[in-house]
UniProtKB/TrEMBL annotation:
Keyword Membrane annotated: yes
Family: Belongs to the ABC-4 integral membrane protein family.
Domain of life of the source: Bacteria
Species name: Streptomyces kebangsaanensis
Disordered: annotated segments: 60-79
Bilayer disposition of the protein: Multi-pass membrane protein
Membrane-crossing segments per the record: 269-295, 318-344, 364-386, 407-430, 442-475, 496-517, 732-757, 782-802, 822-845
Biased composition (Polar residues): 60-74
One Pfam entry name: MacB_PCD
ABC3 transporter permease C-terminal domain span: 274-394, 736-851
Name assigned to this protein: ABC transporter permease
């Protein structure tokens, strides 16, 4: 009980300083709990949706996925004959059955040719209105479609794009473009996760999506009373025989949920990883806080030991304070985490994915995980200061107001730090020289961990040299005030090292990712300049196939010298060594593709691969299967016949674009794959006539005005798009790393605040001999800037080393250019100085307000 009272007294005596540490715990716990609540809520939302929309049993066409339609490369969904519906209706245990046809391989536009698609990345779905849809949607205005000129739209899409009854829309599919007017608007009775849904009558949907009537993509079956879904599935499967996919409502819902979970897990574990970084940074803050508090209470600890307190009691007293800190920060963090989850839901709502707070899911494990993490991390971080406090002897503590230094521990720390840093550097060196990316990645990971830990351990030894260099450059101009700030930063190297290390972690990751991102962009740009010979690339940003109408519009564009179509065809290959390679991809293109992409070959000529019944294979595949120019490969096309193709060229593996591709001409593939099963183009390349590039570019954009799902890019556009994509990804990562940097800033604030308290008498004496408040505040700000820049130097240097090593591994994949983003690095370094200034505002202000006489009288 005495230990608890002492701990409570000390905790509340330093509540301001404890609050800063508690904020670090709060932020880290809040990010973890917010991530868990948000992803659990997403799972709940989709689970309810999938359960509500699935019929008792669903019959799908051959080739469809477990979640329903499979977007095929033909642009049309897999279908089954309408006779299946009659067979299902006559099956025992069936109360009702209805045919449905839908597709996600569509683009819907308004009268101005603007896309009516979700901004959240959710699909655009066009299908027929069925009784199954009526279970989860309610017509709020107008009526369901009853003819080819009518369409019904969901209320969310109508509201977002300002659609009303009578407005004209166009549905663009592989079949053509169908125009209709809005006849009705239907609202979801369950949460809409963001899809845009359009309903046509059944015959119109069949003609528009498939090109003919009398077919369905699936059949929705309702069980008769007393018949289970499993029994109904058996009856339907027996009646239909093979060739169809038959699933219960639970199986469909589980398949859909599994598909969305893969996306959610990437987001979940990515965000938890950044929360872990914030926890790691928070550890330094807590260690520093308790180390300084213990040092300031050394005489008090000595008195406790003198009157009978044991080492374990002193140790427990500090750990109880940490426990209280962890509990307070964790409890508040759990509550803040729920708030973060709600904020993320609102953000997703602004992007078009509607998540209702009615589905807010807080599993019992979430607060438990938050509390356990927060408390355990805090107590572990406080263990070393607590152990140090317990080792202080009573007489030494009564003689000295500060904790005694442990010279032996310093030597051990130096040796351990040097060994870890050296081992980490060696691992990075091995990674940079690896012959395979997989092997090198393991060494890179080990090197990152060892060098990070090594620099954290050895940091105090580096303080003397780096702080003096920084001071010579930055502080000497401030005269005596600058020199005093330098001495303050050098006074306790361990404290300065730990504070700088907190910043180092976040900035090292920023620097590493900046180097990797810049190198990827520079390498890809270099590859574009060296290998791409086309003027224009036409593609869908969502990876959708290009409709025949759009291809015709490209070919009819004036000013073009050539147009190259490019398709992907699935096949199985049987090589001369007798082995069969399944699920291979043949890149089918027009012969002019050899001009559009200057692919290096190690044997043969790529142009010959586009001759009749010819192909190329990549270098690695050829070596593995003993293939040489002239070898024959048996190619079984998934949607066609089997061909025997002669290998005319072997392409180099030293490539980025189309690395590992196998080429054949479209004419060769067309001999073995029926026209109705031939994949549509994934890309179209166009070359302008000499001197007409600008006019052709403008003409192409005009020609594709009616097809807004496709984008025309020249090489400059392509490079800019690549930079934007990498930049957006990096900005998102930087935003998540900002959490760790905020925690690090709190650490600097806490260190300075405690340092000011520790030097109260010293500050009073300096003020008494003439130091002004302004000079005092400047001294503290300069000290903070030096500490921040010390951490920035370590972090940026370490991160650039990691990034350069990672680029060596990327070079194995063809990304050969190392690009150091010096502008970003310099910006981060300068930004760190401002971080130091910001962190010093409150401690400097409090020091300036200190009463001189009271400060001198402080013991």
């Amino acid at each position: 009980m005495t230990v608890l009272k002492t701990s409570l007294r000390n905790f509340f005596a330093h509540k301001g300083r404890m609050a800063l540490s508690a904020v670090a715990v709060l932020l880290s716990v809040a990010f973890v709990c917010g991530t868990l609540v948000f992803t659990d809520t997403m799972n709940t939302t989709f689970d309810k949706l999938f359960q509500a929309t699935a019929s008792d049993v669903t019959v799908s066409a051959k080739g469809s996925s477990d979640t329903g339609e499979t977007t095929s490369r033909t642009g049309r969904p897999p279908v089954m004959p309408a006779s299946v519906l009659a067979e299902v209706r006559g099956t025992e245990g069936v109360r009702a059955a209805e045919g449905a046809v839908f597709s996600t391989s569509v683009t819907v536009v308004d009268a101005d040719k603007d896309k009516l698609s979700p901004s959240s990345g959710a699909p655009t779905i066009v299908g027929n209105w069925t009784d199954n849809d009526a279970r989860t949607m309610k017509i709020t205005s107008g009526a369901a479609p009853k003819g080819p000129d009518q369409v019904m739209v969901d209320a969310d899409t109508a509201g977002k794009h300002h659609l009303g009854l009578g407005d004209e829309i166009g549905v663009i599919t592989a079949v053509g473009t169908h125009h209709a007017r809005v006849s009705g608007i239907a609202a979801f009775t369950v949460t809409n996760p963001g899809a845009a849904i359009f309903y046509l009558d059944t015959k119109t949907a069949q003609r528009t999506l498939v090109g003919r009537t009398g077919v369905y993509t699936n059949v929705n079956v309702t069980a008769a009373e007393g018949v289970t879904d499993e029994q109904l599935k058996k009856n339907v499967a027996a009646a239909l025989g093979g060739g169809y996919k038959v699933q219960t409502a639970k199986e469909v819902a589980d398949a859909n949920q599994k598909g969305i979970e893969s996306f959610l897990n990437v987001m979940k574990y990515g965000m938890l990883g950044f929360a872990g970084i914030a926890f790691l940074v928070g550890i330094f803050l807590i260690i520093n806080t308790f180390s300084m508090l213990v040092a300031q209470r050394t005489r008090e600890i000595g008195l406790m030991r003198a009157i009978g307190s044991s080492r374990s009691q002193v140790n427990r007293s500090v750990l109880v304070e940490a426990l209280l800190l962890g509990l307070a920060g964790s409890v508040l963090g759990v509550g803040a985490g729920v708030g973060i989850a709600v904020g993320l839901m609102k953000l997703m709502g602004a992007m078009g994915m509607h998540l209702s707070t009615d589905d807010l899911t807080v599993a019992w494990t979430t607060p438990v995980i938050g509390l356990v993490l927060g408390v355990v991390v805090t107590v572990l971080a406080a263990y070393l200061p607590a152990r140090r406090a317990g080792k202080v002897s009573p007489m030494a503590a009564l003689r000295d107001a500060g904790a005694p230094a442990d010279a032996r521990a310093g030597i051990v720390r130096a040796v351990l730090g040097l060994v870890l840093t050296g081992a980490g550097g060696a691992s990075l060196y091995v990674a940079a020289g690896a012959d395979q990316a997989k092997e090198g990645s393991a060494w890179l990971g080990l090197g990152v961990v060892l060098t990070l830990i090594g620099l954290v351990v050895i940091g105090p030894l580096l303080v003397g040299g780096l702080v003096r260099v920084l001071s010579a450059v930055l502080l000497r101009a401030f005269g005596p005030i600058g020199r005093m700030a330098e001495r303050n930063a050098l006074r306790n190297p361990r404290r300065t090292g730990a504070t700088g290390a907190a910043l180092m972690i976040g900035l090292a990751l920023v620097a590493c990712l900046s180097v990797v991102g810049s190198s990827m962009v520079a390498s890809a740009t270099d590859q574009l300049d060296k290998t791409v010979g086309t003027d224009f690339i036409i593609q869908s940003d969502k990876g959708e196939v290009i409709t025949p109408q759009a291809v015709k519009a490209v070919k009819d564009t004036p000013g073009l010298e050539r147009v190259t179509e490019y398709k992907l065809v699935d096949a199985s290959l049987t090589t001369p060594d007798g082995r069969t390679s399944k699920n291979q991809m043949i890149n089918a293109a027009d012969p002019t593709y050899a001009q559009d992409l200057r692919t290096k070959t190690v044997a043969g000529t790529l142009a010959d691969a586009y001759k009749r019944d010819s192909m190329s294979v990549p270098e690695g595949f050829a070596k593995k299967h003993g293939i040489e120019p002239g070898s024959t490969v048996e190619v079984a096309f998934r949607d066609g016949a089997t061909a025997k193709l002669t290998v005319r060229a072997i392409t180099s593996d030293d490539a980025v674009i189309d690395k590992g591709a196998m080429y054949a001409s479209i004419a060769t593939v067309a001999r073995y794959v029926p026209a109705d099963r031939m994949p549509l183009d994934l890309l179209v390349f166009a070359g302008a006539k000499d001197g007409q590039e600008a006019a052709a570019y403008k003409a192409l954009k005009s020609a594709l005005h009616d097809y807004p799902q496709y984008t025309v890019r020249d090489q400059t556009d392509y490079k800019e798009e690549l930079q934007n994509q990498v930049g957006q990804l990096l900005n998102m990562v930087y935003g998540l790393l900002a959490l760790a940097i905020i925690v690090a800033v709190l650490g600097v604030v806490n260190t300075l605040a405690l340092s000011v308290v520790e030097r109260t008498r010293e500050i009073g004496l300096m003020r008494a001999i003439g130091l002004s408040r302004r000079q005092l505040r400047r001294m503290i700000r300069l000290e903070s800037v030096v500490i921040a820049l010390f951490g920035a130097l370590l972090g940026l240097g370490l991160g650039m080393g990691w990034g350069a090593t990672a680029q060596k591994l990327l070079a194995l994949e063809g990304l050969n250019v190392l690009e150091i983003p010096w502008g970003t690095i310099a910006g981060v370094f300068v930004g760190s100085a401002f971080v130091g200034l910001f962190a010093a505002l409150v401690p400097a202000f409090r020091a300036g307000r200190m009463n001189v006489l009271n400060a001198i009288a402080t013991d």
